[in-house]
Amino acid sequence: MRSPVLPLTWHLIRSSGRRGLQIRLLAVGAAAVGAFVLLVMVAATLGSAARADRTDWRTPEPARHGTALQALATTYIGHEPVTVVSLAQLPGHPETPAPPGLAAFPEKGEVYVSPALASLLHQLPASRLADRFPKVSSYGTIGAAGLASPDELVAVVGRAPTDPAVSEEAEGSTVWDIGQAARAEISGFSGTQASLFTSYDQQTALVGVALLVMPVVVLAAASGRLGAARREQQLAALRLAGATPRQIIGMTALETAALGAAGALTGAALYAASLPLLAEIPYGLGGWYVSQLWVGLPWLAAIVVAVTGLITVSAVSMLRQVATSPLGVAQQADPRRTRIIRLVLFVAVLLHLWSATGGGQLSTRQVLGLLLLFYGAFWLFGPWVVDRLGRLVGRFARGPATLLAGRRLSDDPRGAWRTVSGLVLAGFAAGFFAVSMIGMDGSAHRDQVAVAGAHASEVRALLRDAGVTATVDTVGEDDWDGLLNGTPGVIAHISGGGRARLDTAVTALTPANPARPPFTQDYATAGDRTAIGRFAEVSTATLALSFLVATTSAGLTAAAGVLDRRRIYGRLRLAGTPLKVLDRARVRETVIPMVALAGGTTAIGVYVSYRLNKAVGASINAAGALELAACVAVGALAMFAAIGGSRPLLRRVTEDAARSAD
């Protein structure tokens, strides 16, 4: 016998009218946003790893039977790192393969530069940058295979085996050289150590992903429950008419799976079309190559299936009451209470987080696990708080709008929680990131240029010839507080300051020690600045995406709530309730739990960040309080705007009260 599930599903969709079509379009839109954000998150994580893989060839990998010498050095121009790879073929040895991005191993005197560095060499005077490299009639170009970003500044210089730039002294001797200077005999370019400037990218991206996962899940779950009240009424009627629970579940799963798949495929298409624009968004070293942000068909299919499955499961999970008690649903006699076990579980998770962050350093995987655990616990805890808030508000209400809002909160705490959950969880991200940007003061070595192993007289002469005024001091092995950190050499204090003077001084002092380029505080603080910079960039992107997802979720849920409750609104209008009262009740239904819960999660985010910083021995950024206040204000305004966007819809569904109540 032919199953009636498909014909019935199609009939319900066709007969749902304009309101039903609007709800389904909202569901498709929510699924599209969720899939798009998930794909962007995955692309950033995978792309960060791909960028790091393109830099590991620059750190020389020692070989037992080396055929060439390779030295890594780092210099800076305008606070931006310039990676310099010096290569020298050893005589009497087999030819060394070409490095990534080059067609052949560079000959002595050849200089290859990245497109971004080539542009900079033409823009700036030679005394600021070009004079740091051997003079050539023209520069070769490093291809994309050897670059992590199209904005990266990289130079590959061919040297003689006797050149000081590839001597043993080029290995470096200060603590600042780790990740910025190295030297070894090599036989190829199969290194495994990523550049200092890309090694933090994926770890910090993963932290952002962990904080974004739950808001995206909330959005996808909300899209699966759009029109839940209308669907329950229709399916309850079918259940009373003789439909089996399996048929009810099959109809819902079929409809929501189709809507979820349509939305997820739309989001995937939007992601693919926006790849060139996404590649322009800077992260770390700069923009991206489009190929780095393409997740591939397996990941694309997995995200589409995941979003579709999540929406389907969310919709089907709402059918328990329809399957077991269709008469109660038809009569709308189901106050959806929550149990105190939610509070017990939430307290248990908080105690676990307290003990887990109490001491010792945490790995990236542990941090991600704790964040996901907290999000999951708060997702269970939120409806319980909303339920209790509704009861309190209803008991102490002094006006009809507040009374209606309290009754709605206590009658459907899960629905009210879904409206505000996105912003509540985004508030945790705001609180976490606002104070976790570790501050550092680099002013101790401002306007200084250090040259290891140089002589003061030579340094003075070079600076004088370049027209740079400076005070020159010689430091020894016992000076551990200076820029050279216990390495004998010379420190020049540049008069007048400014990046142009400092860059000119660095260029002028390059011949003072060809094996060790002169460096400034940018070199000394590179490791900390890179980690902090990546964290700050991820925090900004996370907050922006969190508020986007939260606002979308709130707007869609509010609009669907109006459509779902149009019969109730119609009856209230027939009873004489003014439209303003209904709108105020709807707004307060959102504002009350948002203020109570978003404030709590923001405070918890601040505290968790403080505990994590304490675990790694770092300080918090007190100035982040201003950023936190701005984020909360923007998020609240966006939420109100999203809810206010459904006000015309409320007016339309209540214009003909008699028809709405019918």
What's the count of strands? 9
Question: Nearest-angstrom radius of gyration?
Answer: 31 Å
Tally of helical segments: 24
Principal-axis shape: elongated
Structural class: alpha+beta
Strand residues, percent: 5-15%
* Major sheet characteristics: 6 strands, mixed
Helix content: 55-70%
In order across it, which strands form the biggest sheet? 4-3-5-2-1-6
Your description of this structure?
This protein has 662 residues and is α+β, with helices and mostly antiparallel strands. It contains 24 helices and 9 strands. The protein has a 6-stranded mixed β-sheet with strand order 4-3-5-2-1-6. β3, α3 and β4 form a beta-alpha-beta unit. The radius of gyration is 31 Å and the shape is elongated. It starts with a helix and ends with a helix.
At a glance:
This protein is of the alpha+beta class and 662 residues long. It contains 24 helices and nine strands. The two termini are 37 Å apart.
What is the topological layout?
Elements: H1 5-14, H2 17-53, E1 68-77, E2 80-89, E3 111-113, H3 115-123, E4 140-141, E5 154-158, E6 182-186, H4 201-224, H5 228-240, H6 245-273, H7 275-278, H8 290-293, H9 297-316, H10 320-324, H11 326-330, H12 341-356, H13 364-396, H14 400-411, H15 413-434, E7 448-452, H16 456-465, E8 470-475, E9 489-494, H17 499-508, H18 521-524, H19 526-564, H20 566-574, H21 579-615, H22 624-644, H23 647-653, H24 657-661
Parallel strand pairs: 2-5, 3-4
Antiparallel strand pairs: 1-2, 1-6, 3-5, 7-9, 8-9
